[in-house]
Amino acid sequence: MRIAVPNKGRLHEPTIDLLERAGLHLENGAERKLYADTVDPDVSVLFARAADIPEYVADGAAEMGITGYDQVREARADTVEELLDLEFGRCRLVLAAPEDGDIDGVEDLAGKTVATEFPNVTRDFFADTGVDPNVVEVSGATELTPHVEMADAIVDITSTGTTLKMNQLAVVEEVLASSVRLFAREDVVDDSKVQEVRTALSSVISADGKRYLMMNVPEEQLEEVRDVIPGLGGPTVMDIADDGNGEDGMLAVHVVVDERDVFETITEVKKAGASGILVTEIERLVE
Ligand SMILES: Nc1ncnc2c1ncn2[C@@H]1O[C@H](COP(=O)(O)OP(=O)(O)OP(=O)(O)O)[C@@H](O)[C@H]1O
Ligand SMILES: O=P(O)(O)OC[C@H]1O[C@H](OP(=O)(O)OP(=O)(O)O)[C@H](O)[C@@H]1O
Ligand SMILES: [Mg+2]
């Protein structure tokens, strides 16, 4: 099985990082190589441009791919199936026009020109509106085109909004919300290796923002502690073997909580009688 992943650009590093955290360590993958092996002899990685990845998967160069949803839609790769939202590379494709111009809505673009790196997504968007502007494809610096009379509006990526603002452009309408996805070719989605990869990546995402709390609780205090724990599916409670030091009747309580609940939970369980509280990170969480 081969996974196509971005070879450069902003998606490269976070993708490699995710594979590593999922236990799919890369081997023999010196920088600038086309392929890398992983610790799993059945899984290798193919490096490609973010925009080419959906096509690589559709055409059979790889079985799985990781890239932005915007690229999957642009490639119109209808033989690939999404397996997982990887929850990074969040951005929006928006229709934007000069702030001080006369384009306030989609209908104002009838007979006008829209420049974009995403001509297919743009045409699909306008097809649904009944407005049919002229769409011109550019390969970068799209934000410049309305200022050089090349276009009346653009469809481009925005996340913080800084680039649009810098170019005196305002959002007219959202075209697409995107994030990075794991997908596979239709004919291999049920393959056990594909599902293994999906589970491994999913376990990293599930663990993100979660912490593991361990504490000691006197038996008679268990209910009180349990009541203040916001845990995932309730805590795990274990007997602590009597160590002969009067620790009899102590229980070990383990629970997974949201990182943002950790501070309050510690305060609450302490009040309820817990001691020896330990907080650790979670690498993976297989549900
Ligand atoms: N500003 C942004 N914020 C969040 N995600 C973004 C942003 N810009 C792009 N992306 C996502 O990253 C994907 C690839 O963009 P990126 O800029 O890394 O590649 P690229 O422009 O093709 O790189 P290069 O031109 O170096 O090959 C986009 O398709 C989109 O899904
Ligand atoms: O809303 P913002 O946070 O300003 O982000 C939007 C910008 O980010 C991307 O460009 P990128 O930085 O990838 O440069 P590129 O044009 O070289 O791909 C995108 O093409 C926008 O220009
Ligand atoms: Mg870019």
SSE map:
Blueprint lengths: L1 E5 L5 H10 L4 E2 L7 E4 L5 E5 L4 H7 L4 E5 H7 L4 E6 L5 E8 L14 E4 L2 H9 L6 E4 L15 E6 L3 H5 L2 E10 L1 E6 L6 H16 L2 E9 L3 H7 L7 E4 L10 E9 L3 H10 L3 E7 L6
Parallel strand pairs: 1-4, 1-5, 8-9, 8-10
Antiparallel strand pairs: 2-3, 3-4, 5-12, 6-12, 7-10, 7-11, 13-15, 13-16, 14-15
Helix pairs in contact: 7-8
Bound molecules: adenosine-5'-triphosphate, 1-O-pyrophosphono-5-O-phosphono-alpha-D-ribofuranose and magnesium ion.
Can you characterise this structure?
The protein folds into three domains: 116 residues, 3-Layer(aba) Sandwich (D-Maltodextrin-Binding Protein, domain 2); 88 residues, 3-Layer(aba) Sandwich (D-Maltodextrin-Binding Protein, domain 2), CATH 3.40.190.10; 73 residues, Alpha-Beta Plaits, CATH 3.30.70.120. It is built from eight helices and 16 strands. The protein is globular, with a radius of gyration of 25 Å. The two termini are 24 Å apart. The relative contact order is 0.14. The model has no long low-confidence stretch (mean pLDDT 94). Adenosine-5'-triphosphate binds next to helix 3. Its cofactor is Mg(2+). Keywords: Amino-acid biosynthesis, ATP-binding, Cytoplasm, Glycosyltransferase, Histidine biosynthesis, Magnesium, Metal-binding, Nucleotide-binding, Transferase. It is found in: Cytoplasm.
